[in-house]
Design goal:
The protein is built from ten helices and five strands, in the order αββαααβββαααααα. It is mainly alpha-helical. It has two domains: about 5-50, no CATH class; about 70-290, hpI Integrase, Chain A, CATH 1.10.443. The strands form two sheets. A three-stranded antiparallel sheet has the order 3-4-5, covered by helices on one side. A two-stranded antiparallel sheet has the order 1-2. Strand 1 and strand 2 (about 45-50) form a beta hairpin. Helix 3 runs parallel beside helix 8 and helix 6 (about 190-210) packs antiparallel against helix 7 (about 215-225). Residues about 55-60 and about 260-270 have low confidence and may be disordered.
Length: about 300
């Protein structure tokens, strides 16, 4: 479907060409040759009126209708489905949602970059984020890099993290490297591979929601099917989890690992109190669930 802006511009081109044609054939008066600019383009000849007052206003550019958040119950359902259908990225999903990592940063992790501080749940896990290409054998294995080298605190929810970490250890036991995320062939996972697993998970999530007995959940599934979202959703969910308990945009910027506060302004920290509140909120929902994590009738 043609956008409003493209429609206006196409109409303008047609009008200019028509006026030029009429002038060339002596039908349209009031113009002279210097009023027109004839430009050759790869698609053919384009005609412009050099000096004409705009008598129209271009419609504003349509912002992408992109999803940036998801309610926590749906997040937990997504983990259920990840454990069942896409276990190779289940822990990566955790790092994104509860650590704010970009998916390129996730696939750059090796086990030496995961650190534990046992006995202190609010500060129990952090990872080293740095530019690392775990697939130098591929020219296009890693297309992007960490935007900021840093130590990134991960919100530690024992009921969820421990299960996912143990699952990931089993999946990588026979891998050919120390990479945290590997593909079915035992090689370090590329960004494209991670994104492919995520698309599979997204489909399972939408299908599961659309089959729910609650019509409100079914409608939510339909809405998720019609809106744009991908791996970025993890970082968005993290931002909004922090926003519920953070006080300033600077706190969120620190929590997300941003160099600038500007990129965190849409969300409203990096302190133990904030992480503790988030842990308590998620644990409450986990404890209220009728089934254990990973068990879902979809």
């Amino acid at each position: 479907m043609t956008s409003g802006r493209n429609y206006v511009r196409a109409s303008e081109d047609n009008v200019n060409k028509a006026l030029y044609y009429l002038w060339m054939h002596g039908i349209a008066t009031g113009f002279k040759e210097s009023d027109f600019a004839v430009v050759e383009t790869p698609r053919g000849t384009t005609v412009y009126l050099k000096d004409v007052k705009n008598c129209y206003t271009l419609p504003p550019s349509k912002a992408r209708n992109r999803l940036h958040d998801m309610d926590t119950k749906t997040v937990l359902r997504m983990f259920d489905l990840a454990i069942r259908y896409t276990p190779r990225i289940a822990l990566g999903l955790y790092f994104q949602i509860f650590g704010g990592l970009r998916y390129a940063e996730v696939v750059s992790l090796d086990y030496n970059k995961i650190h534990f501080n046992l006995g202190d749940n609010a500060n129990a896990v952090y990872v080293d984020i740095a530019d690392t290409d775990l697939r130098p054998d591929l020219r296009r294995g890693f297309l992007s890099r960490a935007k900021k080298n840093r130590k990134q605190q991960i919100i530690y929810i024992p009921e969820l993290f421990d299960q996912l970490y143990e699952l990931n250890i089993k999946l990588t036991a026979k891998g050919f490297s120390n990479a945290v995320f590997i593909n079915a062939n035992g090689n370090a996972m590329t960004e494209a591979s991670y994104a492919g697993y995520f698309r599979k998970l997204k489909k399972h999530l939408i299908d599961s929601l659309k089959k729910d007995s609650d019509f409100r959940v079914r409608n939510y599934g339909i809405s998720l099917e019609s809106i744009e979202w991908g791996t970025h959703i993890g970082r968005g969910i993290y931002s909004n989890l922090v926003a519920e308990v953070a006080k300033t945009s600077a706190e969120i910027a620190r929590a997300r690992g941003d160099s600038s506060q500007d990129s965190s302004l849409p969300y409203l920290s990096d302190n133990s109190k904030t992480r503790t509140l988030i842990i308590e909120n998620v644990q409450k929902l986990i404890n209220e669930r009728p089934t254990k994590l990973g068990e879902i009738n979809d």
